[in-house]
Amino acid sequence: MDSPFGIWIPQITILRCQRLEDAREAVEAIRSRQCVMVQVEDASPEEAQRIIDFLAGAIDALDGQVERIGDATFLFAPAGVTVSHS
Fold it and tell me: Is-contact 20 42, C-beta < 8 A?
């Protein structure tokens, strides 16, 4: 698939984050133009909120988008990726 960034092969990374430190791997994957599905069901409610807030700020700075997939699952997509619901 051609994109404004050259040839891009779509990839999805699935991460289970329990601590805020785990979210850094998600940011690096998004910066590498990968979609990231983050599951925070194993984190405490407070830590899960910190993780999602951190990633939402990062995706906003990178002009991407975030979609809630389930109660504790979120999809973070880099700029240029369209997420649609059917």
Answer: no
**Does residue 84 form part of some domain?**
no
pLDDT in tens, 13-37: 999 999 999 999 999 999 988 999 9
Two tokens, residue 25: 């791997």
Q: Which of 7, 19, 66 shows the shortest CA–CA distance to 43?
A: 19
Is residue 37 domain-resident?
yes
- The Cα–Cα gap between 73 and 86 comes to 18
Query: CATH number of the domain that 39 lies in?
Result: 3.30.110.150
